[in-house]
Amino acid sequence: MKLQTTIVLGIGVTVLLTVLAYMINVQTFGTNIKDTKHLPLNTNKSTEERLKIQVNEIKKSIKTNSEFNNETAFFIDMKIHSGKNRFFIYNLKTNKLVDQGLVAHGSGSETEVEGKLKFSNVNNSLCTSLGKYSIGHSYIGSFGKAYKLFGLDATNSNAFDRNVVLHKYSSVPYEEQVDPICNSFGCPMVNEKFYNRMEKIVDNSKKKIILNIYY
What we know:
This protein is of the alpha+beta class. It is about 25% helix and about 25% strand.
């Protein structure tokens, strides 16, 4: 009887610890929007760790710079397969993921090795450039409304001259998929529905929003 009681208690403690761990994880990556089609964060632990590192770096970068929005920032993790959500809208105040969606990378970033990308700041390379960007004014171009991007690092300093912009494209799917999505000419290119939600955040922000592309 004592052995059975010990086993039952052991199982009970294990279940309790598992539930507590799940609750802590949900609170860490909580959400603020009702559209749960993209949520929670469909990534593994290493992806979450990479995002946290980038979030902390952005917080340090804008801490003493009143020019930038200190509540919301955008992050793109190029380590993630293009068919999976890798564009993250993050609340820096609450430390919560607000939204996420698919985003294309430049066709020039493709390599002969599946899953491995290369990056460049060179004009006509058609590559994605890593680094921090300041999201600038909107304009109407070939893809409709888009946002100018200004590179803030040596790795993306030519973004404006290369005409690298944040825009939507009808061929970018809304749902995650197994196959890679279409490529861009170097721009972060997103789905139209996701763009509409992102657009409201950018347009309603009184300060510039940081977009950070990392690998």
